[in-house]
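Q: What would this complex look like in 3D?
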Amino acid sequence: GESVGLHLPTLSVQEGDNSIINCAYSNSASDYFIWYKQESGKGPQFIIDIRSNMDKRQGQRVTVLLNKTVKHLSLQIAATQPGDSAVYFCAENRGKSGGGADGLTFGKGTHLIIQP
Amino acid sequence: GAGVSQSPSNKVTEKGKDVELRCDPISGHTALYWYRQSLGQGLEFLIYFQGNSAPDKSGLPSDRFSAERTGGSVSTLTIQRTQQEDSAVYLCASKTHRGLMNTEAFFGQGTRLTVV
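A: Here is my prediction, written as structure tokens for the whole assembly.
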């Protein structure tokens, strides 16, 4: 079936550098996308979201870019810190509001490692 | 509490036993999701409740799995005759809706189930 996937299972960056985590989705009906951060032993934590009527959204040190033409989503983290080390998941919520019969669909995740 | 609460946090059970996992969503959230996360993997959708609508059970892996949501609040995920492959972290999430707009889901810390 349709799914959200991630390009790289592990990404290692130097502390202070910027990082970019990529995500591909296949369902053109998806209208809402979310990035989650999951630290070891914890549940996923919301980072930032974007709706399909936007192509960019910025938060504190994070930016999400959405390219609907190629069905690509990315998360940029500026000036990475040790606390950014975690697994990052993108998720899509497709179809009608409230999710309807759809749950959020997640990819396998990218493990971001911040090296000192 | 203010967040999604799951209990127990850890559960060890013998193969063949039944287990019940509990989720207390954020007060007022109409939508509730259950996911399963195997070690090092992404989130596998199990079941979705939305208000008084019939739940979306399309993600349940077998008829040994069932879930209820009483009074539109607390949910219980039941696994009957547990198997070793059921070992995973079971995550619950809840969310509300702003009119016709999707919103982010908030996750609990999960229940780590180990079947021995």
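A: To summarize the key features: The radius of gyration of chain B is 14 Å. Residues 67 and 77 of chain B are 4 Å apart (CA to CA).
Q: Very helpful, thank you.
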